[in-house]
User: Fold DSD1 family PLP-dependent enzyme from Plastoroseomonas arctica.
Amino acid sequence: MQPPPAEPGMPEDEVDTPALLLDLDAFEANLDMMASLLAPTGTRLRAHAKTHKSSVIAKLQMARGAIGQCVQKVAEAEALAWGGIPDILVSNQVVGARKLARFAALAHIAQVAICVDDAEQVAAIEAAAEAAGVRIPVLIEIDVGAARCGVEPGPPAVALAEHIAASKQLRFGGIQAYQGSAQHQRTPEQRAASIAHAVESSRRTVEQLRQRGLDCSIVGGAGTGTFRLEAASGVYTEIQAGSYAFMDADYARNSDAPPFRHALFVLATVMSRAIPGVAVVDAGHKAVAIDSGLPLVWDRPGLRYAGASDEHGKILIEGGTPPGLGEKLRLVPGHCDPTVDRYDWYVGVRGGRVECLWPVSARGGMA
Ligand code: PLP
Ligand code: MN
Assistant:
C-alpha cells in the first residue's frame, strides 16, 4: 500500500498526483438523491461495493438508508465484514473450495448470502457451510436478458431452488436478476424494453417458486442506469446500484442521464507543454480506466483528453485558458469502478481543502 498522497487540511492544489479525489458535497448529495428516489417505492437499497471497495463508504451509505451491501468477490466481502458491515450479498458466482471456505467463515461475523446458477455449486457451498458450522442463504441467479450468468427463468430456477431448500446447511434466499446490458443503453425506450423483459421474467419465476412454497425474501438487481424501473416494478425488493455514488462520464452519456453529480475525479498534473496546443498530464490508463471511454476534463471548457498511454494523458487545447506546466486538472473517469481499483486512497475534498483520507480497503483482491 502506498502512503497517502495528501494530509487533512491541505489545499486540493497540493495533493500529490495522480490521486483519486472524492468531492464530498457531491458524494453526499448523491446518497441523499438515491434515498429520496427510492423512498416512495418502498424498494430497499443494497448498494454495490464493487464500485467503491471501501467499508467507510459502505457505512456512509448505510447511515443514509442502504440496508446492506453487494459485493462481487470474496475479497470484497472480507474487507466489508472485517470493517463491520453486517449484511453482505455476494451477487455473483464463487467457484473453488478455498474461496468458499473463506466466504463461509464470514458467516460467523456478518450476515452473508451468495448466488448460484449450477447444482454443483449448491453442493460446494453446502460443504463449505457444513465445515464452518454455519447456515447460509443462497439466491438463484436467473438470466434476465444479459446472457452472462444465470439459469433460465421459470422451471430451471424452481428446480435449483428446491435443491437448495432441501439442504440443512442452506436456506433459499430468493433470486438475483441483474440486467447488466441494459444499464448503458443510451435511450430510455431501449432501457424500458430491456427492464420490462427482466421484470416479467422475475415475476414469473417468483410466482412459480411461491406455488411450490418457496418465498423469495430477496428479488435483487438493477444498476445506476435502470434502477427507477426495477424499483417501480412491484417485483424487485432490492436495488443494487453502485456507480450512482460517484457518477462517471459514461453514465452521463445516457440520454435522460441518472440525476447524480460527478463526485469522483482523478487529479492530474500537467507534466509537459513542449508541443504547441498540447498539455500532457501524469494520468494515463494506469491512472484512469478507459474501457468505457476517455475521461473528461472537469470545468475547463476547450480542454479535451484525447489519448492515454501507460503514464501519459494527452490533452488537446482547443479553446479556453491553456493550462500551465505544473497546473492540476480534475478528470472525470469514463468508468468509475476500475478507476477506483487503481488507488490505495480516497482523498476526500470539500471547499478546496482535503477533509479526509479513506483507504480503498478491498483494492485489488484477486479473489
Ligand atoms: N449488480 C450487479 C450484479 C452488477 O454486476 C453491477 C455492475 O456491474 C451492479 C449491480 C451495479 O451497477 P452500477 O455500478 O452500474 O450501478
Ligand atoms: Mn461499472
